[in-house]
Amino acid sequence: MKRITRIALLSAMVVFTATSRGNNAKLPLIPYPQKVEQLKAEKVSFKTLVILADEDHSTNLSGAIAQLNRFVPALQISTNAPQKGYITVSLLKETSIPKEGYKLNIEGNKASITYSDNGGCFYAFQTLMQLMEKKGKAYTLPQVAIEDSPNFMFRGFMHDVGRNFQTIEDLKRQLDIFALYKLNVFHWHLTDHPGWRIECKAYPILNDPTYQRKGRDQGTFYTYDQIRDLIAYAKERNILVIPEIDVPGHSAYFKTAFGFTMASPQGIEVLEKCFKEFFSEIPASDCPYIHLGSDEVHIDNPKEFMAKMEDLVYQSGRKAVVWNPGLKASPATINQIWKDAAFTSEDKQNDVNLSSPLFDSSIGYVNGYDPLILVNRIILNKACGKVKGDSLALGGILCCWPDVKVADKKNIFRHNPVWPATLAFAERYWHGGELPFVKNPNLLELSNIEMRNNLEDFEKRMDVHKTGILASEPFPWTANSTIQWNVSIPFKSKEEHTAKSTTKALASLPDSLRWVSYSGGTIDMEALKRAYKVEGKDSLVAYAYAYIYSDKSKTVDCWIGFETPARSNRQYAGIPQQGSWDANGGDVWINGSRLTPPVWSKPGQYRILRPTWAQPEEEMPYEDEEFYWSRKPTKVHLQKGKNVVLIKVPKSYQAQRWSFTFAPLNMDGLRFTTKEN
């Protein structure tokens, strides 16, 4: 008889804050399982979790226990089960369960996990941990039967450490969270214009700070020991690391160091030695994929160069990945699709190679979008354009490219919606499935009830995570799908009629204005302009208004903003002048009175109306007041009953990221509507 070991997990903190969970509401799980059945209405109360595992299962537990130690830091482990107040978890193997799939049954004081591989066992524990709820000194679990497996086999996140270096310790903390939400790929962009971040024994000059971009983490790189350590750490959490050595573009440091380019004969010789050194240090068993980059570059010998690089990868027993659009690769190489909207019918220009396996990164970069819009885009995205993955549609990778210098690396997460987007991405690429048709994911039509219900359901679940297990993490997002607006079709600013108060402004605007209704805390005016085929590249204006009904007189914190700059570029109209809301002329009125703008620390600064890639301005880090979500919220007083908010949204230059945001951070007791009733 096989030896039974009892691992007692004594919990001593809140995994999720106490939250009202109605019997008919979905469990607050992300990603949501494929099938959930409630067995009994009563919840199981316990103080100790006892895992029963024989020798066949015990090797699968190290990652799960590490996660419990991370997210339940007061955890104690005992080999002795207490007399009472515990729940047991037994582990069973079943080969018929899909890869990374599992069954989780909780009934009475007994739970069971059935799985076929390490990933399935690990993910069952992530679900179990998300289900725990603190009640006094004990914890509760719902009595449920869950059957779950992913619809897409690759679900990843990419960090660009070539431009902004991050420590191994920071990356490990992030891997824990990726694993909690069942992401299984970490795409590690290790080289870019500022520097080569991999130890290089053959050419130490690549690690010499002299040849790296000044002020961009000069001299920092990962030793091979650190790379092996991170790969092992990720593997314990069912995460595959895909290193990217970007060739032959994105390599200014290379020419600075050697005096020739990567695509030259000398450059190819250097790269061959570098790749072979990497392959000798990092075995294919631990690192079976290598990303070659290959985008945003023009060279004289693309076919020869790519054949050489791919051959190096395949000879080492690995698979190659490249960006698409980019230099053309062989059919066996995985294409990572990065152009926005690559799988929508509106995009006729992109040549997506559907005959090769692919990763989908087309939904939008974390650094490029307004946080409220990006979460909606991801949830409404049909992954790879398919209901379920297959041998070509492998899955997706969410990318973060903060090209602009980040002095404090915590600002990568404060200035970019890394965690909100990650949770939305985890939901979409695990669950897959058919979705309601959406004309433009940047514009939420009020008439699309199914779409709005999907968003509202996800928001309720994500709110639980934001205030619970991720409460200590930067989380620039707030629930906003129930916010409703009347928005005018943009018109030439010379036709504008301005008034002094909200009521008069609405009455005095031209009768010829056409009004349309949309929902969301941020409205993308550029998308609306395209949708209604409005002519004109600048000198446009639009208005938006909404009725806000409040249960009582109160002051609420609101996010209010206009142009949102991409964190990959410094091109925008800059911080407004003192006394202004928007450097382009935007304004806000509440109940007939102009809302007082913030007091700006650096009024009028950072106005740069041209792209800044590879320019000195790229070395000016963004500051908190440049984003509505990282500066202090605006205090807005609402009277009991009806309130009216009016927003003026001008477009003053062609490349303006034209939008507006008005989002209360707490919607309790508030109701937005487009109608006065």
TrEMBL record:
Keywords: Glycosidase, Hydrolase. One of its GO terms (cellular component) is membrane. GO terms for molecular function: beta-N-acetylhexosaminidase activity. GO terms for biological process: carbohydrate metabolic process; glycosaminoglycan metabolic process. Coiled coil: none annotated. It is an enzyme of class 3 (hydrolase). Residues 28-148 form the Beta-hexosaminidase bacterial type N-terminal domain. Its EC number is 3.2.1.52. InterPro entries: Beta_hexosaminidase_sua/sub, GH, Glyco_hydro_20_cat, Hex-like_dom2, HEX_bac_N. Residues 152-258 form the Glycoside hydrolase family 20 catalytic domain. It catalyses: Hydrolysis of terminal non-reducing N-acetyl-D-hexosamine residues in N-acetyl-beta-D-hexosaminides. This is beta-N-acetylhexosaminidase.
